[in-house]
Automatic annotation (TrEMBL):
Protein name as annotated: RNA-directed DNA polymerase from mobile element jockey
Membrane spanning stretches: none
UniProt cross-references to InterPro entries, sorted A to Z: Endo/exonu/phosph_ase_sf, Endo/exonuclease/phosphatase
SUPFAM superfamilies: DNase I-like (SSF56219)
GO molecular function: RNA-directed DNA polymerase activity
Sequence ranges assigned to domain Endonuclease/exonuclease/phosphatase in this UniProt record: 117-230
Gene3D superfamilies xrefs: Endonuclease/exonuclease/phosphatase
Alphabetized UniProt keyword annotations: Nucleotidyltransferase, RNA-directed DNA polymerase, Transferase
A Pfam family matched in the record: Exo_endo_phos_2
Length: 237
């Protein structure tokens, strides 16, 4: 899945993008972007600030820089394979947040005209998540924030199939805290075996920026089983 985010500050438009995607390659192969042609295309065309991912890629520990001028921070869970990661474009000021959580999450606060926290979150399928664990994670994210990722959560509230357990927990958690799910109801995922669709990739925003965000899924899978997702954000100051 690929998420594109344009950011605006007041009347000044910054042509910058965030990307989120799923892939599974070794770190050495990641430096050869031809192994992920969709990502190569996105990076080459839109010049993103971030690449957020739910992945099983093997990274060298704390590698400071990879090709195309990106650094990374990631959740590893004690393994060289990262379940959630962010690639931050070189030259962008940011600070990594040392999350105290059992969830698969990585987060940074970026410094622009204003600060913005971005968190990549992966909730594995068939693994129940409690509202308490979500609360503990979100309380560590400075506002305003965006939390993007594969929640593997089903609910009609955001266009999914009948509500499953994780979907209920996410529904209740966001409602109780006035967090906003940005999804428009479009499907985000196609099951490769059954060709069924679902909406399991979510974008959650803190209230102060939610009204300034727009969300839309692309009509083409672009070689993935998750649809690219487009964001537009206006931050005033």
């Amino acid at each position: 899945m690929v998420n594109f985010i344009n950011i605006h500050f007041g009347n000044v438009k910054f042509q910058r993008n965030f990307l989120q995607f799923h892939f599974s390659v070794d770190f050495d192969e990641l430096n050869n972007w031809s192994c992920v042609p969709v990502i190569l295309c996105c990076v080459g065309v839109s010049k993103p600030w971030f690449i957020l991912q739910t992945c099983s890629a093997v990274f060298e520990p704390r590698t400071p820089l990879i090709d195309l001028g990106h650094r990374h921070c990631m959740f590893t869970g004690g393994s060289p394979r990262g379940e959630a990661a962010l690639l931050i474009r070189n030259g962008i000021r940011f600070s990594e947040i040392d999350l105290k959580t059992g969830l698969h999450a990585a987060a940074v606060t970026i410094s622009l005209a204003k600060t913005l926290t971005v968190c990549s979150l992966y909730l594995p399928p068939n693994s129940p998540v409690s509202k308490l664990s979500l609360t503990e994670l979100f309380e560590q994210l400075p506002k305003p924030f965006l939390v993007l990722g594969d929640f593997n959560a089903h609910s009609p509230v955001w266009g999914g199939t009948p509500t499953w357990m994780t979907g209920e927990d996410v529904e209740e958690f966001t409602a109780e805290n006035d967090f906003i799910i940005l999804n428009s109801g479009e499907q985000t995922f196609v099951h490769s075996a059954y060709h069924s669709t679902s909406a399991i990739d979510l974008a959650v925003a803190s209230p102060s920026i939610a009204a300034e965000c727009s969300w839309a899924a692309h009509s083409d899978l672009c070689g993935s089983n998750h649809y690219p997702i487009f964001f537009n954000i206006v931050l005033t100051f």
